Amino acid sequence: MEPVSLGKSLAVPCVQDLAKEISQTTVPARYLRLDQDPPIIINNDAASLTQIPVIDMQRLISDELELDKMNHACREWGFFQLINHGVDDSLVDKVKVGIQELFNLPMEEKNKYWQRPEEMEGFGQAFVVSEEQKLDWGDMFYMITLPEHARKPYLFPELPQPFRDNLEAYSAEMKKLAMKILHLMAKALRMKPEEMKDMFEEGCQMMRMNYYPPCPQPELVIGLNSHTDAIGLTILLQVNEMEGLQIRKSGRWIPVEPLPNAFVLNIGDMLEIVTNGIYRSTEHRAAVNSVRERISMSTFYSPNLDGELGPAPSLVTPETPAAYRRIGVADFFKGYFSRELVGKSYVDVMRIQNGGDENN
């Protein structure tokens, strides 16, 4: 079977290289984001701010109270940190080293993995649809990792060893963890477990490694624009100790202080649709700082690309009718990737506008 293409993005300069070249005081105009809410620049007061819920995986498996806590986190926050997740620490550490080494490759090596015309996978940025568009202060390395036949032959199979083997093992662990969490979510929602299993078991997994260089004017740029994730479930690995993830809750931005050896999980648009809006995807963004780079990797897990997306039948009742229309999974991705990454606008297109619903 042929590798899949879900979208494309225009080629842009490498920000990591740009950050080394620019003067210490100014940022090129194309990266200035004066249209945005200014990012919260992390300081020592961050610890006193509200923090997202923390869920213990070991307790989650057997403890109804922990399941209720996760259910509440998914309904109210769309985000939580997962501790005691069971993924081997030494594997995670090897993957972190491999990601850092990948971004530190010389440019001639990186070019082998650079985005090709009409493609989005590889090094570069996503969602760049015009030459006038403002850019993020960050680079990504993005690729489809599962199913294996969907991999681009010049990306995953060509990664340097031992990173390739470590990433292969990590990919399998992420799938296993995603399926466990999705199963527990189905239980918390009183959704038929086979509906979640059938939709996600042969699902699509993507990885996006992020490199946000230090910036002389961090308050004027954004590492990654405010958005919701298209997918079902995101599992974020913080590669180094720098904070930068911020989520929008009740109209304000909250910085996430990552816990050691934890993953940050969040609900994507597709899971919002599957749960018929009970769990909601939450806008988030990445801020940068003037001191040092921040590196992270998101593993995205989605339903099967050949499948169809819609509210789970067991969650649709006369009292809670379907709030989203059905669409092919691949078609949803293609629509999402064809536009600029802005807020939560795309999932809203999927809503069924039931006039007068409030009065029924």
TrEMBL record:
> What InterPro entries does UniProt report for this protein, alphabetically?
DIOX_N, IPNS-like_FE2OG_OXY, IPNS-like_sf, Oxoglu/Fe-dep_dioxygenase_dom, Plant_2OG-oxidoreductases
Record-stated family: Belongs to the iron/ascorbate-dependent oxidoreductase family.
GO MF terms on file? L-ascorbic acid binding; metal ion binding; oxidoreductase activity
Q: What is this protein called?
A: Fe2OG dioxygenase domain-containing protein
Q: Which residues form the Fe2OG dioxygenase domain?
A: 203-303
- Which UniProt keywords are listed? Iron, Metal-binding, Oxidoreductase, Vitamin C
Question: Known Gene3D superfamilies for this protein?
Answer: B-lactam Antibiotic, Isopenicillin N Synthase, Chain
SUPFAM superfamilies per record: Clavaminate synthase-like
Reading the lineage from the top rank, the first entry is Eukaryota
